[in-house]
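Supplementary Data S3. Sequence and structure tokens for construct A.
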Amino acid sequence: MIAAEKANHDITRMVELLGVSRAGYYKWVHRQGAPAGPRAVRAADLAVKIKVAHDASDGVNGAPRITADLREAGEVVSVKTVAKLMRENNIRGISPRPWTPVTTLPDASTHCIPDLVERRFDRGVLNAVWTSDITYLATDQGWLYLCAVRDGCSRRVIGYAFADSLHTDVVETALRRAVTFRQGDTAGTIFHADRGCQYTSAQLADVAEDLDVRLSVGRTGVCWDNAQIESFWSTLKTEFYDRHHFTTHAAAITAVSTWIETVYNRRRRHSALGQINPVAFEHRLTTAAEKAA
């Protein structure tokens, strides 16, 4: 204001009326014409790199994962600094929406299956616990159902299948694909899910016996007993599916399969894995085991 009115009014009188010092005003004038200091240059450089990393994540990642990206590229920077620069430059990650499962249809006439997991999904080794569930995907052709199988240790999706109905076949297909992917080395693996009729059916019991995996289910209506796979659904819907529109089942299947394989398993960082992706984590785990053998 002082700079804008200095041609019409005395500077001394204006600084008195505004309650600022004359020396302070002239310091401000000097700073306007001075080159940016090292801190400002550093902040501007980081802001550009943050924007690049954010765009590379399809606009999904927040400060923790972007910080991991920057550190991997050689930058020495804190999460707090990244978060501050993101706020100042209006760069935002995506936060999950509240999610309520609707695909669990209990079957009161089934055999008894225990809870072998008790929320201990990660046992520190691969193939100890697999979690599974079914979610729905909306398309212009109607509902599409997706069953996924996820390793509790690496968080990697190791088997999945799509169907246009909630039949046990979709679970069987996803489970058999997971066993095939792990090359059949799954004797004693716990296959954990909720008490939906697909998971407590006689058909799946026969499949589990054939594959030598142990069935496990959580309590009815307690989502935390299968929280790890439900966390995956939240990520899928929030970071990918809800941001797109699919006209056909085929288009949705292609897009979701690509996202699982290329983004979730191989690119997306997980805080529980030390901010690396599931494939990299599995590689690190198997390499360490081979060296120790």
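Construct B, processed identically:
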Amino acid sequence: MIPGYITTKEASERWGISIRYVNVLCHNGKIPLAQKLGTIWAIPEDTEKPTQDRRIKSGEYKNWRKRHNNKRGELA
């Protein structure tokens, strides 16, 4: 590996996540300065683990209990 860079396997061991998830983060651009070299990703050694932003931003699930849990069991 290039000096100053680590592989996805090494990043997954440091961050406590799967290798596949590290690949997905690299592919989606969530890891800054990660570069693909052939079939492997090179990640800078000093890169911190990206935060997981799994919030629902569309509002699609807003008030879902009111719509599905009325007294008669019928959908609103």
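Strands lie at 5-6, 35-37, 40-44. The mean pLDDT is 84.
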